[in-house]
Amino acid sequence: MVTIGEYIQIKRLQKKLSVHELCVDICSPSTLSKIENNQINAKDEIINSLLLKVGKYDKEMIIENTKEIENICNDYFERLKINQDRDAIYSEIMDKAELFLNSLHLLTFYIAKIYKAYNLFDLKQIAVNNDALSLLNQYKQFCNPDELYFYHLVFVIHNSNIKDKVHQFNTNISSDEIGWHQYFLADDMFHLGKYLECIQYSQSAFQLACETCNIQMMYGCTLLLMLCILEQKQTNTKQLNHYLNQLKNLSYYLNYNFDEIINYNIGSTYLAQNKIDEAYTYLQKLEAMSFKEEKYSFLLHHKLAYLYTSMNLISKAKKHIEAMTNCLDQQESHQTKVCENIISSLNIKLNNIDYEDNPVYQKNIEYIFQHAEAAFSFGLKKFYFSDIEHVYLKQRRYKDLYLLYKENLKE
User: Fold this and answer.
1) Which one of 33, 127, 226, 320 has the fewest beta carbons within 10 angstroms of its own beta carbon?
2) What is 1-56's CATH number?
3) How far is CA 305 from each of CA 34, 57, 237, 278, 364, rounded to the nearest angstrom?
4) Taking the complete model, does pTM exceed 0.70, yes or no?
């Protein structure tokens, strides 16, 4: 589903109007550009004046049309994803063409036209509605993950039927290799705290993932983009919700538990930022779920134990500290010492009001910070940045504190 700003831009491009031509006597070119790129919420009078130039509907009518066909769109994609019969719903979409083309679901209309004749389990060469494909190609930057996935899937299906399959297969593999390379660079940048670089590599990898319909890569990139938003000093709620919706759409294609992944990642990020109330909102939802006791559940129990220790919820904290202890034999040998120091630090923090003055606690934190990256990840080391900062302050190790800031706050 596109936004009102994107809708105006699509309609403007269809009518071959420039920004300057459309905004005459309505607003400045820069204002129109910001509207089209979702950077401002303009007054309804401005929006309706722009809509009057590109079509016959005002904002209220577009929203009403969108609501009216919402269930049809959801039903259509649910059927398309599992290749169910779509003849009846396709006819309904065509009957309501006027509503679709004057709503925020206008791109779904063209997806439906492209997939009218496609059986996704019988990849034979079938004629494509080239007009619809050409139009969608022009506006694919406005597609949501569902629309983008099925747009690119047309080319994957086409490529499976061309004569030189070996060449095409190699092309796809090459594109996938480059995409994964970009993704792992993005992941490295995120864990190094270089969020702008992470966003750039993630967006690049996402585009390559779309071209080969690599849903797993699309999901990973979207998750990184969402986490970068959370790491900003002032979280952009609109962008955060946008990426959350993308992840929810993509999770349908994967065997991932969407709620577990989201609650863990958002909760952990807030906890590392010492935003306890926000962290509690997500992590307590995670705790309520039935998650598998697997190799990495130590880290999951760690986040919950750290949260409840910070909130001084003793019984809940003890429960997860005990679970961490039970997980010790599941860890690799090079991880065990870090895990033991984490457990020790949490026990001291839970049972001692002046825990920061405790020399054993101080040694625990310093050991965790020094070895967490090698044992687990930079992310765990970063998680303990605030703790080591307080330890150095308590010990009046100002030179070490200076070096800590110099090394870890480069961005």
Assistant:
1) 127
2) 1.10.260.40
3) 45, 54, 28, 16, 16
4) no
